[in-house]
Amino acid sequence: KECLSEDRICRIAIDENDYVVGWVGGISQYGGNAWELHPIVVDIKHRGKGIGRQLVRDLEEQVRNRGGITIYAGSDDENNMTSLSNVDLYDNLLDRIRDIKNFKGHPYEFYLKLGFKIIGVIPDANGLGKPDIFLGKRVVDWIQ
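Above: the chain's sequence. Below: its structure in token form.
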């Protein structure tokens, strides 16, 4: 029911048997200028087939059609998957973001492949040493 409100976008991917294999949602923020990508889910049996990429691209188009400018997503690191976990991010934060390493398949790299950039981190968002990594992407052309 929430998905049907005007400030939301919900899109699904279905397979050849009409089974839902993926879902992406967007939530309008900042007066519609920015949209939070939440959630994105792809059935484990269908991962690695481009479904997530297609869902995000579709969401980008939907956001652009509604006058949105930016999409952003939070990607928690609760399980020590990156070099940003279990360190004091209040010390040299920008250097740590620049030098981020992916140890265990953290999804931030999925977003980077789609043109997103790391735009920030909330240190300790999920407990001490467990940050939330924020990624964003402008979906319209920059005007100079």
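The chain has a mean pLDDT of 96.
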